[in-house]
Amino acid sequence: MQYDVSAPTRSVYIHWPFCPYKCHYCPFVALASHDSFMTQYHKALTKEIEQFGSLAGEKIQLDTLYFGGGTPSTYPNDLLIELFDTLKKVCVFTDQTEVTIEINPGTVREGQLELWKSLGINRLSIGVQSLNDKVLHSLNRLQSARDVITLLEKAQHFFSNISVDLILGLPGISDEEWESLLHTVVTWPIAHTSMYFLTIHEDTPLYFKVKSNAVVVPCDDKMVELYYKSRDIFIRNGFDHYEISSFARPGRQSRHNTAYWERVPYKAFGLGACSFDGTKRLQNEKNLMKYIKKAESGDDCVIFMEELTDHQVNIERIMLGLRRSKGVTWCSVSSHLSAHKKMVVREKIEEFKRKQWMNESEGVLTLTPAGLALENEIIVQLC
Fold first, then answer.
1. How far apart are CA 364 and CA 356, in angstroms?
2. Model pTM?
């Protein structure tokens, strides 16, 4: 079930699963109150990276590196230095390599910004979500608006490429408060914003609160209306809307995320980390102690592998293409379809164009703002 080491890999993801707390809406492999395992996990992580390097033989010519989590800003400084030493044995870094670290306000310690910059990190992704402390704390996200402002004031002196994450649809946030937040965000020294719809994931604390009516989330129609307004605010303030949830100053698109959307190979290391080698999707062990044991012994950490069928590849091309402003070509949509299916899909596309959900120009299909808000429904009908 191994990743194909001969794949033209130019992007790497590192998963750091530790968090000082776990948000009630979080579905990711993230561990609160497990800090005592940090050093042991770090050693296993470096061993997994070294093992991959020995199998690959040649170094990866690195285009993007992304530290996700969890809360990577809690990675101990001395261990992070060791990790970069390991990565440089396996990867070739250049001045053009985009190196991103996810950070949560309130978790950045004195001197860390300087250290990260010295290690070659050149992009920050800050989890803001909201500036309403009461709402965030009710969802067990224990940060404050003051933490955000303080971090931005300091970070801008070290990094010119800063992204912030926001969540649209948090319970307790009025329309007026949300729009006020966006008008504030566009004045910050940032180059990029990711704005995600709140998703209620099964088996999270938020899921059970919504199910029991203890928490009420906004209806879909209101979410779509706010999405339109949000999009307009970002565009009027100089941000390009280049992907359904992503807005960037010109030339500041996330290159790492673009690698995902373009379906190029990327190798992921760490607990529960997901990789793609061009033909297979793989996921690492999600149990902490099992992952550590496998990595330390040099065993394959992958527990799930799926080799994609032509149909699955086609669905992914359509879905990932339509998420982006550049769209997807009719040729790539129809290339694997039977004559009958091609006719059915063509009729759907014409219907979407009549409803002003989709545009078509020189064989390229793109979603309108209304279509972007309904992307999931459109993809289901096309596939």
1. 15
2. 0.94
239, 259, 237: which is closest to 249 by C-alpha?
Answer: 239
* pLDDT surpasses 70 at 1: no
pLDDT single digits (tens) 240-288: 999 999 999 999 999 999 999 999 999 999 999 999 999 999 999 999 9
- CA separation for the pair 356, 367 (Å, rounded): 9
Between strands 162-168 and 123-129, the pairing is parallel
What CATH number has the domain spanning 310-382? 1.10.10
What 3-state class would DSSP assign to 74?
helix
SS3 state at 138: helix
Phi, psi angle pair for 309, to nearest 5°: -80, 165
- First CA to last CA distance, the chain: 28
DSSP 338-356: -HHHHHHHHHHHHHHHHTT
Token reading at 245: 């949830």
Tokens of 373: 């808000």
Mean local confidence (pLDDT), 345-367: 92
**Domain limits, CATH 3.30.750.200, in the chain:** 11-261
Name the nearest CA neighbour of 192 among 268, 260, 266, 243: 243
pLDDT digits (tens, 9 = 90+) for 194-232: 999 988 888 899 889 888 888 888 887 888 889 999 999
**315, two tokens:** 């669905």
- CATH architecture of the region 11-261: 2-Layer Sandwich (3.30)
Amino acid symbol at 239: F
State the DSSP H helix or E strand holding residue 375, giving kind and residue range, or none if neither. helix 375-382
| H helical segments located in 218-374 | 220-236, 255-261, 288-296, 310-322, 330-334, 339-354, 369-373
Specify the amino acid at residue 235: I
Mean pLDDT of 46-62: 94
**CATH 1.10.10 segments of the chain:** 310-382
pLDDT at 229 (0 to 100): 93
